[in-house]
């Protein structure tokens, strides 16, 4: 699954604004019918306009995956033209990933060492902890119990502290998954920790 950087991605709301009232209603119905987790629930979007629905989608799916989910839902609702337009924006964005992002990925091949060396700073500065936990759970780094326990914590900092002080990232594979997420979503943090 492709990931996108916070604040740089094309926004979902302008695409939803193009939908007619009936099309928007159909989009919301398809969004609610989506079977994959995480899910959007009726009480979150009932009576909301396109801006509010876009904000709910970002809060549920994070900025990391919201565009991909929006494209999938548009296709399910048979709004292929809108899906193609949003998909083009998404592709242009992905193709514009900077040299620095790729360089960070190459320089951090030793992900376990990177995590060990930078634990305190990662606890303090990593954002989008919920999306990270989703990725770790999906990749079986976290079991259901640990995942639910961490998701219940009240802040990104608390979630990151629990994750980084436990034995969850003990394996190289777990650290690779963690670092792949960071490289994709927070390349500037990685670059800062690598001191360039």
The domain tally reads 2
Mean pLDDT: 80
Low-confidence stretches: 1-10, 92-100
Oligomer: single chain
* CATH architecture heading of the largest domain: Orthogonal Bundle
Percent range of helical residues: 55-70%
Please count the helical segments: 13
Shape: elongated
| H/E series | HHHHHHHHHHHHH
Quickly name the level 1 CATH class of the largest domain: Mainly Alpha
The CATH superfamily of the largest domain turns out to be Death Domain, Fas
Distance between the termini: 28 Å
Alpha-beta classification? mainly alpha
Structure in words:
By secondary structure, the chain is an all-alpha fold. The chain has two domains: 13-95, Death Domain, Fas (Orthogonal Bundle), CATH 1.10.533; 99-193, Death Domain, Fas. Helices cover 70% and strands 0% of the residues. It has 13 helices and no strands. Residues 1-10 and 92-100 have low confidence and may be disordered. Its main location: cytoplasm. One of its GO terms (cellular component) is cytosol. Residues 107-196 form the CARD domain. Keywords: Cytoplasm, Immunity, Inflammatory response, Innate immunity.
From the structure above, extract its key features.
Death Domain, Fas, mainly alpha, immunity, cytoplasm, inflammatory response, CARD
Describe the secondary-structure layout.
Elements: H1 13-17, H2 21-33, H3 42-45, H4 50-76, H5 80-95, H6 99-107, H7 111-117, H8 119-125, H9 129-138, H10 144-151, H11 156-165, H12 172-185, H13 187-193
């Amino acid at each position: 699954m492709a990931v996108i950087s916070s604040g740089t991605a094309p926004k979902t709301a302008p695409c939803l604004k193009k939908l007619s009232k009936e099309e928007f209603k159909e989009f919301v119905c398809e969004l609610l019918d989506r079977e994959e987790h995480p899910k959007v629930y009726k009480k979150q979007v009932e009576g909301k306009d396109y801006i509010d629905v876009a904000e709910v989608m970002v809060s549920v799916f994070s900025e990391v995956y919201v565009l991909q989910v929006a494209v999938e839902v548009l296709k399910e609702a048979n709004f292929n033209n809108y899906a193609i337009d949003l998909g083009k924006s998404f592709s242009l964005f992905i193709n514009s990933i900077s040299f620095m992002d790729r360089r960070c990925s190459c320089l951090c091949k030793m992900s376990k060492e990177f995590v060990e060396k930078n634990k305190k700073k990662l606890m303090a500065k990593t954002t989008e902890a919920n999306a990270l936990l989703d990725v770790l759970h999906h990749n079986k780094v976290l079991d259901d119990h640990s995942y639910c326990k961490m998701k219940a914590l009240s802040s990104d900092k608390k979630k990151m502290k629990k994750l980084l002080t436990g034995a969850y990232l003990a394996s190289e594979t777990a650290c690779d998954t963690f670092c792949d997420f960071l490289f994709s979503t927070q390349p500037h943090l990685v670059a800062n920790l690598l001191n360039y």
